[in-house]
Known about the structure:
The structure holds two protein chains of two kinds.
Chain A: H1 12-23, E1 27-28, H2 29-39, H3 48-61, E2 64-70, E3 76-82, H4 84-110
Antiparallel strand pairs in A: 1-3, 2-3
Chain B: H1 2-12, H2 15-38, H3 43-54, H4 57-89, H5 91-120, E1 131-137, H6 148-157, E2 161-174, E3 181-188, H7 192-196, E4 202-203, E5 219-221, H8 223-230, E6 240-243, E7 246-253, E8 267-270, E9 287-292, H9 298-315, H10 317-320, E10 324-329, H11 330-335, H12 338-370, H13 372-380, H14 385-421, H15 435-460, H16 463-472, H17 482-514, E11 524-529, H18 539-554, E12 559-565, E13 576-581, E14 592-599, H19 602-607, E15 611-614, E16 625-629, H20 630-636, E17 646-648, E18 658-664, E19 679-683, E20 692-697, H21 705-715, E21 721-726, H22 727-734, H23 736-770, H24 772-780, H25 785-814, H26 830-856, H27 860-866
Parallel strand pairs in B: 3-8, 5-7, 14-19, 16-18
Antiparallel strand pairs in B: 1-9, 1-10, 2-3, 2-9, 4-7, 5-8, 6-7, 11-20, 11-21, 12-20, 13-14, 13-17, 15-18, 16-19, 17-18
Helix pairs in contact in B: 2-3, 2-4, 4-14, 5-12, 5-14, 5-15, 12-15, 12-17, 12-23, 13-16, 14-15, 17-23, 17-25, 17-26, 18-21, 23-26, 24-27, 25-26
Amino acid sequence: xxxxxxxxxxxxxxxxxxxxxxxxxxxxxxxxxxxxxxxxxxxxxxxxxxxxxxxxxxxxxxxxxxxxxxxxxxxxxxxxxxxxxxxxxxxxxxxxxxxxxxxxxxxxxxx
Amino acid sequence: xxxxxxxxxxxxxxxxxxxxxxxxxxxxxxxxxxxxxxxxxxxxxxxxxxxxxxxxxxxxxxxxxxxxxxxxxxxxxxxxxxxxxxxxxxxxxxxxxxxxxxxxxxxxxxxxxxxxxxxxxxxxxxxxxxxxxxxxxxxxxxxxxxxxxxxxxxxxxxxxxxxxxxxxxxxxxxxxxxxxxxxxxxxxxxxxxxxxxxxxxxxxxxxxxxxxxxxxxxxxxxxxxxxxxxxxxxxxxxxxxxxxxxxxxxxxxxxxxxxxxxxxxxxxxxxxxxxxxxxxxxxxxxxxxxxxxxxxxxxxxxxxxxxxxxxxxxxxxxxxxxxxxxxxxxxxxxxxxxxxxxxxxxxxxxxxxxxxxxxxxxxxxxxxxxxxxxxxxxxxxxxxxxxxxxxxxxxxxxxxxxxxxxxxxxxxxxxxxxxxxxxxxxxxxxxxxxxxxxxxxxxxxxxxxxxxxxxxxxxxxxxxxxxxxxxxxxxxxxxxxxxxxxxxxxxxxxxxxxxxxxxxxxxxxxxxxxxxxxxxxxxxxxxxxxxxxxxxxxxxxxxxxxxxxxxxxxxxxxxxxxxxxxxxxxxxxxxxxxxxxxxxxxxxxxxxxxxxxxxxxxxxxxxxxxxxxxxxxxxxxxxxxxxxxxxxxxxxxxxxxxxxxxxxxxxxxxxxxxxxxxxxxxxxxxxxxxxxxxxxxxxxxxxxxxxxxxxxxxxxxxxxxxxxxxxxxxxxxxxxxxxxxxxxxxxxxxxxxxxxxxxxxxxxxxxxxxxxxxxxxxxxxxxxxxxxxxxxxxxxxxxxxxxxxxxxxxxxxxxxxxxxxxxxxxxxxxxxxxxxxxxxxxxxxxxxxxxxxxxxxxxxxxxxxxxxxxxxxxxxxxxxxxx
Lengths: 111, 867
């Protein structure tokens, strides 16, 4: 498979998922990819192969919780939502992301 | 490492997890397909594209699942690490809990190992559930042995058995060495090893020719004898043993696990049932054992043999009409009466474990309350109640597993002690550590974890409690913690139950010691001399041999008198017999049923049983005269009337009609705990396997042992002398099981009350600690120290009094289980119950006094400043 430029950088996926869940109360996996895809104006595309392992890892870490529910089309889906621990994690990751991009931007500007 | 992980993952792979993942991913693909179709792509292409985008489906599922599992493992490991760290910080607490659990689980597993070996495990033979004891019941014959001819007929005519065989044992002398060596020799019927389905470890089973009269002689020896006598020589087959006048080639060695009928048997040889002397239908000698065909029930086997015996009854009405066959599981027969004792001891030790758990629960509860801050902090960091409870339970699990491991070590040691203490229990050689014991200990540990940890985990993680503790810390007045006092009360109640049981058993022993048995056991040495059953075929010579030995013993310096008897007085055993009175007896008078004994006339002098009326028997040969005891004379005759009467079973070789010469005192022949019963003593006797000789000595009995042994070797060089031991030791052995039960129960009861005291002390100390501020305040406001002391002491006493009352109620319900084991006390013996109550109250005063004094010595200024 060829690498696409708009694939999501490793490690930022968790941040994007947390942020998506902060915006909507509860989302299923497919809706999370759709949300990220739409909000980023089709710039970012979540690799399905890394989405579910990430979701399950975050669930075990206690940042998000999952429950079964039905979609508007009356299909069974697993919905994810933030926990208070996840909210705290989001704040931290957001801060560190901003520090990182700011740092990278400064380096780029300097050159 | 990878391999291990994969295996662990497989073990942890619940199918539900897989199904859920599958559902989740399929949903994703379905949504994608729909979206693609909406953008105008054909259905087929959409499905293909969606799958392509999703990548390798199986790999995704596996990766996701790995995430779940590794995170679960991580969480477990995290809990484990944290728990270990927390426990290491409080070594005193940790050690207390581990030791308490180790004692509880160790004692429990040790007793369970005995139950496992004796009661639960099948007998050590293949398909042992099909093995049965086969007996012939006959009116007026107390030993249900089987006649040789009948054994062969039953074996031939039945339809439900694969085979029936039998055995009897006698003590022989092996004469190849310098001195005769006493060996226990089992004579078996044909098919013996086929019935038990055990093959010799070396050599072979008996050949058909060796199972017939006049065939070649052959012996199979035990593993123990092989090691003792031949130093485990692998070339032992073909060597010979000299037993009496017979030379027997060894044809095989049994495996070490083969201990039938018990560990004492040294060798087995065939007693051919077709021998001319085995053809009498009224002499019985085999203890028979049969192997039923697969699927046959005991009832079917019994019905089958009954039909067979009914046919024999028609054929031989004189001898066989009244005989009934008996069939019982061999295991039940082997275990006998120890079943109840073992379950009672097991019950006691389980109560002990329960007390240990309750104790630990109380400790954990105090600890959880002290850790309110820590728990509150973890809640505020988003930990769920389940994860905090899991954390607390992990700690308890570590404690329990450590306790179980230590307990298992203890159980292994205890099982060895148990085997020594209980050497007379059946199957005691089979006690040992096996996977079942390990599994049992682990189950104990897990159950203990939940029993100890659940209540503290639930109470300790109540959010409201955690929240309040977080805000106001320690200065808040804590409640009275009724749950902890309930736990202490439960401990006291259980300990009282155990103490009551142990107390009753101890009192029984005390009563037993006060009994006057009617004979004097001190200064009596007993012994046996090897003999064989063949000698009994010449009664005159057998009688002379016995007298020669008695006189030989009598001639040894230091011996006051000597006697021989078929049984030892006071050692349990009962031989009832119905006697006819030759002089006639009215139909209206009760049948004459008495205990029967056979002894030389010198027996009464040796045992110091007094002659009350009439004369002592003269040394006539067996079966011409008898003595009766006072109770017999009083029950069936008007006292001295009995003298001169002729009693016996006409025609019987065992109970010939004999004249009553005199009346002797009542002795507790059947056991010290059994009242005397009407008894007849046939005077005389003859040498036969199992005959006891006894000597009254001037000094301690064992001091004469060596000179008696030498003297007997002089007069009977072909016989070995064995079993030299004081009569008192036999009497004490007769109560070995009883004593073991008492010792164990007492030990458990004392441990239980100690644990309950520790629990009471711990809870009181904790209470005093958390109420320090209140006490300080009250003292500052003018409370009197004595009042504070009284108040705390009162609280401790209330708990232990309630526990005590509950315990006595429990004891009243449970001591009935002991009723058959008590002697001279009722299950509701007041002195025992009062004694227990006094003891428990005294120790609980001691346990609450120290914390109460500490409370009354609180310095008000100190406490108020500290806050």
